[in-house]
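Support reply, case 0932

Customer input (verbatim):
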Amino acid sequence: MSAHKVFWTSPSPFWEKIGVAGKLNEMSKPAILRFATDDFMNEYATILASDPRQLPSVTAKSETWERPCPPSNARLLSIENEGMSESARKLGFLKRMRAKEQAPENVSEKNAPLAAIKLFQPIHQRYYLVSACLLCKPAGLGDHILNTETREKVGFVVRRLINSDAADESKPVSFEAFDEYAYVHGQDGAGWRKLDDIKKIAPGEERLPLFPMYFNEANGFKRRLFTGLVPVGRKDEYAGAAAILDNEGESARAKTTKKTGRMRLFQIKVAGPWQRLVEQAAMVNGSIGPEEEPVIASLFDTSDQRKDEDKNTAKENHRTQVIEISRLILFDYADFLKRYCSDLWENCIAAKNRTPAPGAEDNLISALSSLTLAKEIIYDFAISGSAPSLLKTLQNISSETDESITYPLAYLDRNVFSLESSNLTTGEPVDEIDKIVPEDAIDSLYDSSPPGQFQALLDIIDTLTTLTIRAMPPDLPANEYDIPVPLAAQPPIDTRESYFALRCVFERPMCGEILQPPVVSDRTDVFAMSGFFDPEAPARPIRIGLPLDTSPAGLRKFAKNTAFMISDALCGQIQAIKKMTFGDLVLSVLPWPFHKDLSSKFGKITGCTAKGDPAGMMCSLSIPIVTLCALMLLIMIVAILDFIFKWMPFLIVCFPLPKFKAKGSS
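Our regenerated output:
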């Protein structure tokens, strides 16, 4: 075990400048270096190899795309102690370090207003390196040699600064008054944990790697810098992480419920599509008749507002879509219950060999039994027989044993192109699906009281979602993994501007944290990370060369070297789209009496065939022509949406290029 006092300092090329400026508090602070080229590592290595004293000139500073930092140059930094011997310079540095330890706090700096630099992402062509020296005092400011036998290691950590006293944000506050949080990986994912001692490492705190860079000082003394890449590209991950509440790494969202992941999955696969389907039905319902009429009554109006055949066609087309999507939702609901409410599914729904337990299970079964048909929602088409309940429909799905349908979802994924069409593989009708989920059962998705009130349907879906989540057991089945909570559902620790700092860390794991605690450096300058779309971000120069000669004679010369593999189903859909014109698109969004459904143009969509067998295609496209189409389509879309966003003056600026011609020499 080494008794040497190991400590972090700023990079040695910064020492003279710091000493001359008298900023002793910066002696032990790692530096953040900024580079504006994609070969930043070569630039960094070149500076260290040619003249390390240039390193302070690439220190990260505040900049914008209008006022970027000046590029690094080869000029030598002027220092007052130029010509001093290396031993004298080291002795002076030791005196300054000792004076720093005994000096009182710099009150003026601690009470200074907030001033954080902003670091931009690699997409903005900005790269940042954290750099520091790890030294031993008894060795005369020599580099500490890592002992790999005792597993000595170095790294750096990202710390987040949060103002816990946000009662009055208008007052200037020093970053010294902010609380420091460590980024910790726990059993419920990563998040931020508040630190009581900022010079300690939190359990599970993320360490990022440092690598050594060697260079020779002016006197030939070989020096080492530890360097790491600042992860600015992870800004969204850091800013959106939740708070960690305990030492086991359990986050705030886990304290709410263990069912959060499964609840979000249910909303994504069942409740969300179900609600969107109801909203789409309401929209289509209102587009068939005048808005001032009752929503449902407008569908059955017998006046001259619309020809009966057109009205019936619109109703039939949308009813077919409702039936198809509703069946898929039912299958996903059954799949969810089978996986995450397996005991309820097997014993109360499928086998019916026990009575549901009082409480959550009984409430869900009662709700599934009570949901029945509301004919008006599917536009008053004649339906034979009584409509089964949602519970009965799920029981039909669970009891289906036909060999051709080992499981409904697998059958749909493997064989059926469209529930309204035939099986493309065998040409057989899909009556098996009707056996499992008859058209009558679709109505169980659309019960409302009173009929026709779509908001009531949405409320019923919310209620059923709540009952389903409550009926789930708190623990997952043995063969299932917990569902990760989507990023959009994770509450961030703080929604204000995110401030960060870095600290370098030296650890001796074999010595024990009590005897030899990790050596944590002072923090770097406080910084903020930019987002992907930041109005101040530098713009990476991008030049797209479009075809010069856009005449047929010029476009025919380009190779069609990009292949698209198209299945028989997609092929049929593409063939249907080819029948559509711009006028059809316009008529599809116009109100009565100009409205015309696109389905009347498409007809029945089937897959492509070759000699009676299903067949896909391999299409080879000319990318230059595709690029031209994308540009023209972009201009049209921007012009159409300009009446909302008013963005045309800020979209494009063009400069003339004399003699840049399509024909002849340019």
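We compared this against your earlier run and they match. Two observations from our side: The chain has a mean pLDDT of 74. The chain has three domains: 6-257+493-529, 260-481, 552-651. Please reopen the case if you see a mismatch on your end.
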